[in-house]
Amino acid sequence: MTLHQETARPGAATALAPALDIPAPYGSCPLDPPPAYTAAARDAPVTRSLLPDGTPCWLVTGHEEVRAVLADPRFSADARTPGFPFLSAGQRELATTRPSFIRMDDPEHARLRRMVSKDFLVKRVEELRPGIQDIVDRAVDRMTDGRTSADLVADFAVPVPSLVICLMLGVPYEDHELFQSLSRTLLDNRTTRKRAGQAHAQLMDYLSELAERKRACPADDILSRLVARADLTPEETASLAFLLLVTGHESTANMAAVSVLALLLDPEQATLLRDDPELVRGAVEELLRHLTVIHLGLGRAATRSVEIGGVTIAAGDGVICMLSTANRDPAPFATEGGTCPSELDVTRDARRHVAFGHGIHQCLGQTLARVELQIILATLLRRLPGLRLATAPDELVHHQDAIVYGLRALPVTW
What we know:
alpha+beta, 13 strands, 47% helix, globular
């Protein structure tokens, strides 16, 4: 792989700064991006970097530059493209073995995405709102029944989106321990290539067997509709179900937990939301911006030479788009006379955030995630006004080695 760096002025010579290691260590607040990434974003939106195996790549940290890369078809999302960056051998295994459509480029990406896109349209998801509200209310009932404390992760944040996606997809919820365990293994950057392959195969086998049962006895769910299609192979059907199941509960579960933590650490913001429930839609956008749970960024590989942020990225160069720093960029998110982007402000207009990515690969389930988070936060604030941490913040254990950032546990009381 070759890396070239130039200034925006053609022909100008630039001394190469030391490459930034990826991943970088976290600072004093684990909810914030690593300080090295924040400093890189402040100094230059495109930075020379090194992956854990020593492979060079580019780290893109600015909001405008991240959007430019993710919207440019000259940057491939296909993990099999030469130069595509990986943070571990396990992630390479997951991304290149029977890849899902998020690891494909058009036209194959568009063909497979269309198979399930209707189930995640705004109108369809809004129709699910009463059912999701019922699931959340029942989860609060179970969590508080005869108790004054709980682990908000295990007792609430994980079960709610898991049950929602199981109902939509047609996966028996009684199998949740299996797919949750395999999902955690697959999303952990410390997972070895062998273990990632085993976990991937085990979950694909489970979904393939479930698909066959749906073929024999269909129901009103996504998996039943997929197996009825003549234009999908059994492997493609299982792969689509795999993607929806894993991403459909992991991201929302982690986002819900860290959102509650952020509000518990900032009571003034929680009070604003509790006093004015109409703020919840905008507050969810601000929390998505502020807490971007894809802390390790999105990988791309350049298929042609492209200039981004005054830097020439050559064909075959890997790129990691750091969504968390893009979402802290002052240019689109600083408020006049108000809070800076490093602060949480539930009244901020955060609609231009890139927490769900950008371009044609933007998260398919973002509408569902938004509705779930809106209902989760509004319900907790309304029903548990005395909700508070049951441990010191510095005793919380954070998932810092996973693709999706989160908390191992969140002890709370009320």
